[in-house]
Amino acid sequence: MSSRSISLAALSCVLLVSGTGCSQISNMVSNKASESLEATLTETIEEAQAAITEAEVVEEEEVPELISQADYIKAAEEASARAQNNAKTAVTRAEWTQVDGDWQQAISNLEFVSEDAAEYGEARTKLASYKNSQAAAAKNYLSADAARYTTLTTSPINDAPKAGTFEADARQVREWLHKGEFKKVNTLLRSSVSSNRRTSNGMMYADAVLVNALNGPGVVYMPELMQQLNKWVEAEPNNAMAYVVRSYFNQVPVTWTQLRMVREGSRDTQPDASSQQLLVSLLDSEIALELESGNRLAMIAQLRLAKLSCFETDDESSFDESFFEETFKQANAAMPNSFEVAQEKAQYLFLKDRSGDRALEYLRPLAAAAPSGSAVPMLIPMIHFYVGADIDAMAEHMQKPDVWPEVQKNAERAIAGLPDSALFPAWYARMASSTNNDAIASKYIQIAMNNGNESPLVQSFLRMMM
Q: Interior CA angle at 27 toward 23 and 28, to 5°?
């Protein structure tokens, strides 16, 4: 290669590194047109190299001084102090995770101290101590968790749900009804509905309160409670809520009978008593809607009853689709794509097609479009659960390659949007255990235990699982 070729190659490299553009090259060459090309190239290269050297000096001056070895020690001590303080009050899994993270941060800072630093010996001593403390914190968490597990599975179920929860309010409503304090019941229900209050599981709060208030040992068929409900209707014949509550009271036993049929995969003819209660309940919901067309509790009651009335006998001809579909249309218009409305529709479609295909076809676009915080995506795992139970092959169904990914995706999405939920994590853990996904089951049992340690409903569910 000639000297001119070498100079041109060098110029190209230098200008590329220095950021000099083609127009700048042209100007350089034209300004020195009277000189020889070789001299021009040599001078240009020297100028570019000088510019690069100057830029490097500026860059070196702008680089901040690295953290000192003593600073690593200080940062580690601060993280250690946080870990010790947080460990004093840690109870939940998230709190213990924070303690572990603080210890890990302290350890990581110490590991940055170099061997040739004066602080190296101190760092190694603290490092061993911090690792022991981290291990002790993990052990304390496991001990506390084991104690909570033992309490949950062996001690009597907590009979005092946390104040402000739907379970506590359900008991309060039942007490008010027994005492004839109907105005208090009316106020609580209407306030919950108007504020669109939801439970930690994303369900309609007022609906959850009524179902739990009118269900349980000694509640269903209780003559004294029915007498009080009759008194409320007589005292306030124009109050839609009085009819709604009485409708719920009569539908609860019918609802649970139907759900048991779903689980057992049977369509036995309903007992006459249940049929009569269904009719009374349906009439009360009709009256409530005539008095107050926008009463959402009455709409839910009627939709639930419309679903049940279609499956009263084994006779396929008794499936009155038009009645359910019209009721669904009205409820969905008032509460578009709400969990309660979607749940009734999905259960209805499952009862018509036990393969679950029709229900899933309805739910998939609904779940995909559901906003964060909606419980609707959890309905897809619910249908798969029904299918597995119906064919008495839960594990086999859940382990299908096209089933478990759909269950996992929708369950985890719903739970992530409802961080305080306890029932859904417990339910998802139950499904995961059936597929031998032990890590997932363990993770979500922990979440359920942490979120639902004061919920009798969740405690009962977890106990059944364990």
A: 115
d(CA 320, CA 333): 21
pLDDT at 150: 62
Give CATH for domain 353-466.
1.25.40
Does 265 score more than 50 pLDDT?
A: no
165: tokens are: 């929860």
Q: For 166-178, what is the mean pLDDT?
A: 92
Instruction: Provide the pLDDT for residue 314.
Output: 45
CA distance 46 to 31: 16
Question: What's the confidence (pLDDT) of residue 144?
Answer: 73
Q: How far is CA 303 from CA 206, 240, 287, 327, 342, in A?
A: 16, 16, 14, 6, 10
Count other Cβ atoms within 10 Å, centred on residue 34.
6
The residue whose two tokens read 């369950």 is 411
CB neighbours of 332 closer than 8 A, spacing ≥ 6?
Answer: 341, 345
H helix or E strand, kind and range, residue 418:
none
Whole-model pTM?
A: 0.64
Tell me how far apart the alpha carbons of residues 243 and 241 are, in angstroms, rounded to a whole number. 5
Place of tokens 């490097």: 56
- Asked whether the beta carbons of 4 and 36 are under 8 A apart, the reply is no
CA angle 287, 292, 297 (to 5 degrees): 80
How wide is the angle at C-alpha 320 spanned by C-alphas 259 and 304, nearest 5°? 35
Rounded to whole angstroms, how far apart are CA atoms 257 and 100? 48
Burial of 66: CB neighbours in 10 Å, binned 0-12, 13-18, 19+: exposed
